[in-house]
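Here comes a specimen:
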Amino acid sequence: MSNTSTKGIWKVISASSMGTMIEWYDFYIFGSLAVVISTKFFPADNPTAAFLSTLATFAAGFVVRPFGALFFGRLGDLIGRKYTFMVTLLLMGGATFLIGCIPSYETIGFMAPLLVLLLRLLQGLALGGEYGGAATYVAEHAPKGQKGYWTSWIQTTATVGLFISLMVILITKNVLSKEAFDEWGWRVPFWVSILMVLVSYIIRKNMHESPVFAKAKSEGKISANPLKESFGNKYNLKFVLLALFGATMGQGVVWYTGQFYAMNFMKTVQCIDSSQVDTLLGIALLIGTPFFIVFGWLSDKVGRKYIMMAGMLLAIIGYRPIYKAMYTTTDVTLKTEVLAKTTTVPSMKEIDATKTDSIYTTNKIYTDGTTLEEIKTKHFENGKLMTDEKGKDKIETKVTKMITDSDQTMLMFLVFLQVIFVTMVYGPIAAFLVEMFPTKIRYTSMSLPYHVGNGIFGGLLPAISTYFVTSAKDAGDAEFYLEGLWYPIGIAAVCFVIGMIYIDRKINTLHE
């Protein structure tokens, strides 16, 4: 490849990657702030239900991604790659900015979660059209035999977008007081995205159409009905289904387990301080991200199939021991408490003339340096302890741990291992999908299995797994924290078997 062609493709990658990274940033700001959002847009009287509702709203954005893939994929195959994913960028940016402007549940009641849900659906539709366009655009500029390497740069954007979302949240928290962040500062990361989107739009505006698509269009070889040709043609539909059940389904659950589920697990199951989790996760992502490029490049040499399948197999085998190690690392029942330094401070909060909250704040210190703050709130009405719908005393307990440097390092390593699994399955997959389908229906054909695999199977993971964990905890299971892993392990195992049997190495050169 000459220097000229290298320079040209770097320009293409820079423009495509920046826009896609910003869309992922927009999409994941919501997930990164799920814990605080649950207190703003949902009823506060049941924190667990509010958090599950937030995760369900987060998942809704994933569920509609396949519809975005169909709508924008069709446009991309009819009018071109460039203009289609410029529209998705603006749609995503506008929806994200508006989420940061919605009044809280206390102000507008049920209109708050309804508006958040509608904007999440718009985000999902936009992202459904973005990824396929960016991956196709870069692949159609890449030299023969190097699609894995060049498209792997697009694969880094999802993780980089998550990393930047964590960093923006951390900076905002450090600049503002805890009270200010909780009151209005959490909105800042949503507002910041509009500036990033405008910069990316200006850059993308000057891009040229994909040469492969432009050639097909000039020769009259574009599809008149991309949806019919993609899914009405039995031969092509076979590849769509193989892409979904043999690759993207497993890739989706591995991706979300290694990044989002790990984050939710540390914050809600291990109860680690949110800033500590964001920091250690950010570092693990930063160290792991170059491996997207490594495995994308390697897939050009040895084929896509075995790298992706190896990543899934490692995840299937490794998840339970990894998460058990994560949990025991910060389990205070295995640490020694310095009883002389334990303090409990009672306080009272008057809600109205009939309702009061008794609050007991207990601070504990352990010999290794771990500190724990436990806030227990008892709700009273007319002097009588309130009960929930099951007749149990209405007592809420919120625990926050500040863990030691050595524990943070251990967790960072365990998350890094999961990121490696992610890079193995995700690094080569853009090239794998592009090569399965012909130019005239590529945008549509590759977008749907990608977004069903990631949007449906992957996007539902946080809500389903959290539900499994909560149910097991209520049932008194000693290892309740591992129950959420059965979902990704099961999906990845099915995908691994189908992929190993039916994916043929010839797919690598099918439409190069």
